[in-house]
Write a structure and sequence with these properties.
Radius of gyration: 32 Å
Distance between the termini: 114 Å
Strand content: under 5%
Largest sheet: none
Structural class: mainly alpha
Shape: flat
Number of helices: 10
């Protein structure tokens, strides 16, 4: 009797049938578990969307709305009002307490600078360190304000660290102002060589900045004292 051989098409169809059979067997065995996982993922995704739309976004909007009045007080130099608010509108501290991370990033900058202006330096540092804005100019300002706080606390070495960090964060003429602060703080710490390096950096790299106009006076004072 002649041997019957399968064609390539028959082999392909047989392999396909076996694959379908195995898939059906797999779904019979694990189908409920898979469907449960899919449903769980969908429920979580819907819950996240609902939270963002109905809870997170409204709270962010509420925080922004309440920040308007405190921002006006801040810009007017009324720092106590900006921090504490009045009988009608909340201040920065209440907004932070009520909304936390849902409040705009700027609230930490405002609160930190207001605390600095009112002499609450430790509290100012805490607020300013929480500011994490993306704008390098504003971030550098926050770092420099932390440096100002440490100057007031007479921790000059730490102040130098923050002033130099601010100078590196912003790549514009503001860097000269921060380097000048760093130099003055370094001198207060007794590190005249470090101060001299900051003054020379202003002269060499930021010759058009206002701080460069009299920078030779600072350089000469240290060099002649050697």
């Amino acid at each position: 009797m002649a041997k019957v051989t399968k064609t390539e098409e028959e082999v392909r169809q047989q392999n396909m049938a076996e694959a379908v059979s195995k898939t059906e067997e797999f779904f019979k065995k694990y189908g409920n578990l898979l469907y449960g996982c899919v449903i769980a993922v969908l429920v979580i995704a819907l819950a996240v969307l609902a939270y963002n739309r109905f809870i997170l976004q409204p709270k962010k909007q509420q925080a922004m709305d309440q920040l308007v009045r405190a921002e006006r007080w801040f810009n007017a130099g009324e720092y106590e009002l900006a921090l504490n608010g009045d009988s009608n509108d909340p201040g920065l501290e209440e907004i932070i307490s009520q909304y936390g991370s849902k409040a705009p990033e700027a609230v930490y900058m405002y609160a930190g600078v207001a605390k600095l202006q009112t002499g609450a330096y430790e509290e100012a540092i805490d607020f300013l360190k929480k500011y994490n804005g993306k704008d390098p100019i504003m971030l550098a300002r926050a770092q420099a304000c932390i440096g100002d706080c440490y100057v007031e606390l007479k921790d000059y070495a730490t102040a130098v660290d923050y002033f130099t960090k601010a100078a590196k964060t912003t790549d514009n003429a503001f860097a000269a102002a921060y380097l000048m602060k760093a130099g003055i703080a370094a001198e207060a710490a007794g590190n005249k060589e470090q101060a001299l390096s900051f003054y020379k950096e202003i002269k060499d790299q930021w010759g058009n900045a206002p701080e460069a106009m009299e920078i030779d006076k600072y350089i000469n004072r240290i060099e002649t004292a050697k």
